[in-house]
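#onboarding

Welcome to the new folks! Below is a worked example of what a typical request in this channel looks like: someone posts a single protein sequence, and someone else replies with the predicted structure as tokens. Don't worry about understanding the tokens yet, we'll cover that in week two.

Example request:
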Amino acid sequence: MSTGASSPVRISLCMITRNEEEMLPDCLKSVEGFVDEIIVVDTGSQDKTMSLARKAGARVVEQPWMDDFSAPRNRGLAEATGEWVLVLDADERLTRAACKALREAVALGDFDCGMLPLHNASRADAKLEDVVSGKLRLGEVAYLPRLLRRTPDLEYHGIIHESVGQWLVREDRQAKFLAGIDIVHLGGVPDIRQRRDKSKRNIALLERYRERSPDDVTPYGYLAHEYLEAGNPKKAREVADEGWARLRPGRALIDLSVLRLATARAWLLVQGSEPVEALSTLATGLQLVPDHPDLHFIRGCALEMQGLCADSQNARNDALASALDVYEVARSKDDKLLVQKFVQGCTSWAAEVRLGTMRMLLGHPAEAIEHFDRAVAQKEDCVEAHWGRIECRLAMGDVVTAVREVQAVNEDTDHVVSDDGDDVLSPSDRPDGWVLAALGAEAAGMLDNMGTFVKKAQECLPAGFIAPHRRERYHDALAALSMYRGTPAAIPGPLGQLAGIMRGGSEEVAGARTRPLDLGVVQRIVRHLLLAGKTEYVLPLVEPRAEALLPGLAAEVSAVVQQMS
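Example response:
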């Protein structure tokens, strides 16, 4: 620890611990020589935590755990004597550069609350500099209130996710984002998080919070996110809806609480295919927090969903164009330092993926590839960006490159980790890649391979599509394969409409008018059927009813017939 003589401004490190013998020593070592005292409030350790803390020079205060995180936090503040308080947890470390920047910040002292950048490590053995650089970081940087001017009224509130927000606004105190004072957090590493099972503890405390203060919307947003993280979207939706119903006009609302609740509810509504209600929820959130990228990004998702569910091509394109504009807004917020973000990548790689997808669906694959390339540059393991790039290559006729890239991604059978730390299925376990492989095989005339890939995609359907629009591409592959095999099936989409006409049907197939017919596929199918002598399937395509269902079809088929005659 530094001495008061050499450092006139004193810093107290305040921590709360419980059974942290594994994590605590490295945390304390990371601040050695840069804090003037260490206050450890222990809430019932049964291991060597307290003895290790004392050995490192800490003053240990024992306080029984009372299901309230604010109580031990405030006990630590009461014991502190420094002009400034640094707050860390045992599973966090400061970099050496951060320690120096910390001293410089308090010497300047032009703020009351320092918002410090927290980086979640992806591996327990990661070097701190690799986490801070982003190379081994999970998700994006979060800025948290961890460097506080110690005043007589400084205190935490809230039994969980405790906050100094009331102290901060009470005297119009100044918060400052302090880039460079980097905290590396190891508790988000998947195996460590699973071992500690913090989600179960957090849910129990938040449920108790909700019971005690049912009209306070704060716990509802936290609970919805916790249930989502725990893999219980049904419960998350129930909590989010209940919290949203408690937002009443005239009631004092904390912007961050509304933001937290709005993002959870809107995201759940999008996942539940309810874009209209999601947009209504987001409109309320944007009234209070108009510049937050999370809200704009999810709004883009809702508009995108409306486009995919539209009943005409014009309505579809209008919604997708609106979604593109909104995703651009989200991406434009990348220079803002935010207290809390819930949607990882909404100003960077995730926004680029969505922008690329919109441009691709609107018929601009060359422009879309540029977005997907930027997404991969920002997040190399972004599978959706890889798939999007491949889909664009197919649309541009670069079949050889597309097939080669599909094989490269599908061969990556290792399980990967999502940005929230969960294990997710490998690329080959999802239907997207197999669908694109099938479409590539069709374009290359490899029909046996196409059948194999469609079957693979069918087997992976329970895992769900990475990109919602790719279900349409799956329907296209199914319909095309059925026509190649001489068993045309009326499947949703324009190619399914084509198959329905071949069967002699006169009814309109769902989704047939929302997308343009892929004329390249039509030409290849007609040519294949004629070469196979199956003219009975081609003749219905030049009849008036076919033209009424798919305008321009008769002329396209006639052109192929003339080329082959």
